[in-house]
Amino acid sequence: MSSSPPPTIGNRVTMTVGGQDVQTLRDILPTRPGLEVLFVAKTPAPVSVATGHYFQGAQGKMFWNRLKEYGLFKPTTQFEDDSLLDHSFGITDIVKVPRAYGNEPSPDEYAAGMDRILELIRVHHPRVVVFVYKRVLDNLLRCRFGVREKSVYGFNAGLTVHFSGAGVFAFPLPGTPCNAAQAVVAMRALAEAVGRR
């Protein structure tokens, strides 16, 4: 007797990854090209997959709050990710298999994920690609392009060549080594770049 798939909740989907069906979150992308911002996360957190919405853990809530604090995002729905397309924002993950905090993707997963991200950038033409985690950006640059130099919080002008000319931004997430002054400068620059300030 086969079991029926779990009900669809929010943005939760079943996807085949490496020959196995996994519950994950779908990419939130427009049907036509043209994004202001493409947010790139690492992997969906199990709590987010359970609720069917991106960034539902404690650190994820800090991400949404920081966007709201700088006037970048004014959600009109119960869950923030359901309002992304209304702001001309999209979101994806490097690796779609959910992982608990601290469980890092392998170098091969980073390289494969980067190829997928580069294709999304080519198709959707975001003005800015925001890496939610700076460490993810650094790992991608090392695994895919052999870049050993670390990125900085905020815009990284020297990296646009790798991302089809899109601005590349490392998000100053609370709880990271980014200090408060750096975070303010970075977030103001992001707000200006997308015309929200």
From TrEMBL:
Protein name: Uracil-DNA glycosylase-like domain-containing protein
InterPro entries, sorted: MUG/TDG, Uracil-DNA_glycosylase-like, Uracil-DNA_glycosylase-like_sf
GO biological process terms on file: base-excision repair, AP site formation
Domain Uracil-DNA glycosylase-like: from-to ranges: 33-140
Domain of life the protein comes from: Bacteria
The entry's keywords: DNA damage, DNA repair, Hydrolase
Molecular function via GO: pyrimidine-specific mismatch base pair DNA N-glycosylase activity; uracil DNA N-glycosylase activity
